[in-house]
Amino acid sequence: MRRSIIAGNWKMFKTCAETRAFFDALIPEIQNVEHCDIVVAPPFTALSTAVDETEGTRVAVSAQNVHSEKEGAFTGEVSVRMLTEVGCTYTIIGHSERRQYFGETDESVEKKTLASVGGGLNAIVCVGEILSERDSGQAIEVVRRQVRIGLGRLTESALSHIIVAYEPVWAIGTGRTATPEIAAEMHAEIRKIFAEIYNPAAAYALRILYGGSVKPDNISALMKKEDIDGALVGGASLDPASFVRIIKYS
Ligand code: PEP
Q1: Which residues are catalytic?
Q2: For residue 166, how far is its CA from the centre of ligand 1 (angstroms)?
Q3: Which pTM value belongs to this model?
Q4: How far apart are CA 40 and CA 61, in angstroms?
Q5: Which domains does the chain possess?
Q6: Tens-place pLDDT, residues 43-87
Q7: Distance from the CA of 199 to the center of ligand 1, in angstroms?
Q8: What residue ranges line ligand 1, CB within 6 angstroms?
Q9: Using an 8 Å Cβ cutoff, are 124 and 232 in contact?
């Protein structure tokens, strides 16, 4: 049985003070939550604050991005070791906003993923098609390519630290959620690709999150689908009350 994950991606929101206020409100509400793993991804500047605020709780802290090199002349970048040192246990990789605005490619996703799992982080690797690709019937082909190049050369032990987030780009921040059926179809396809590249057991064990306008009122329908193992939540993870309602989906 795969354990569900509810992960919040704060993007470029929240200062350290706002991070403290968020966890002051969140933590008392999730004391008894045992049915899922909870992950929060603040911006780099608030990671340390988030780690302090969540110490001794069930919340894990994630980065939103990482560089693939160990260290070097890469102005503005942060390494895996820097993240693990502050207490991060996860990083998001290849978010569509990174692909769209910062030139990330399937090849850079592969490098970052290998560096992350090699350095002890769990990697939430994002894949997903843009609207024109869905409308022209290429969605599966695009996601197949993203998975094969980005995640096609992992070792067996690395695989257990990979979480895939299927995020159709047309559903991110738009209020337009993929129907549970559309999401479930792609999740099943991603599992099939993993079975082809690796083996059926590894594919079965893989946790696949859905992301794209997840809200308190649509999480339950999504989570009912067999291949949907959780959610990567953007906007609705910024407000502790709505994030709690998503965590406590029924
Ligand atoms: C995201 O940032 O990964 C995301 C899915 O955003 P939103 O939930 O706001 O669509």
Answers
A1: 95, 167
A2: 11
A3: 0.97
A4: 5
A5: 4-247 (3.20.20.70)
A6: 999 999 999 999 999 999 999 999 999 999 999 999 999 999 999
A7: 30
A8: 9, 11, 167, 172-173, 211-214, 232-236
A9: yes
